[in-house]
Amino acid sequence: MAKVIIWNLVTLDGFFEGEKKWDLDFHNRAWGPELEALSSKFGAAAGLLVFGRVTYEGMKAYWTTAQEEGEVKAYMNALPKLVASRTITSSDWNNTEVTADIIGEIARRKRMLDKTIYVFGSADLSDGLLEAGLVDEVMLAIVPVQLGKGTPFFKEGTRRDFDLIEAKPLSNGAVLTRYAPQSGTR
Questions:
Q1: Is 122 helix (H, G, I), strand (E, B) or coil?
Q2: Where are the domains of the chain?
Q3: Mind listing the pLDDT tens digit for each residue in 121-137?
Q4: Spacing of C-alpha 65 from chain mean position
């Protein structure tokens, strides 16, 4: 049975992007050899990458045209991908499927796969998967930046409790955290 792991970078004040869509310049503060190594590990461990439609569109635009070569680009373009969308029905990005029933599809794939299912970005999708109890782990890189405004990663008005699995400071000041949703809130 596969584990579902949500992965994202968030600011100290809880935003995963700035005021505008894809305002991610704070990622540069956290990016470095340690996150690059972690990203390579994701590629080796992943059985499926999952995106909401908006994140998918940005990822596809970037990874299909990125000039730099390397492990991360290779796995982003090669691995199976699943997109949650009610507005698009197909994709021309290699190994990509689209579903309007993401909860049912993730539950099915979780039973079917033996490699990790990674959910990248996608705050709305992540919230839905947490609500459905399908998430095994939330992995966040907390970036030492306060944006003041932006899109919060977690929805207002929802309480969930998590157990700390690991917290690891990175050499650039970011902190890699891993949490498991507590029983009853998963």
A1: coil
A2: 4-145+163-172
A3: 889 999 999 999 999 99
A4: 20
Residue 183 is predicted with a pLDDT of 76
Phi, psi of 97 (to 5 degrees): -115, 155
Distance of CA 87 to the CA centre of its chain: 21
59's CB contacts (< 8 A; 6+ apart) are: 51, 76, 120, 121
Q: How far apart are CA 145 and CA 155, in angstroms?
A: 20
CA 165 – CA 139 distance, rounded (Å): 9
Rounded CA separation 184/22 (Å): 33
63: burial class by Cβ within 10 Å (0-12, 13-18, 19+)? middle
142-170 mean pLDDT: 95
- Which range of 65-69, 114-118, 155-159 scores highest in mean pLDDT? It is 114-118
- Domain covering 4-145+163-172 assigned CATH 3.40.430.10 in the classification: yes
Quote the CA–CA distance of 76 and 71 in Å, as a whole number. 9
Which pLDDT score is estimated for 186?
A: 43
At 177, the amino acid letter reads T
Burial class from Cβ neighbours inside 10 Å (0-12, 13-18, 19+) for residue 42 reads buried
Residue tagged 């390579």 (tokens): 40
**% of the chain exceeding 70 in pLDDT:** 98
Identity of the amino acid at 18: G
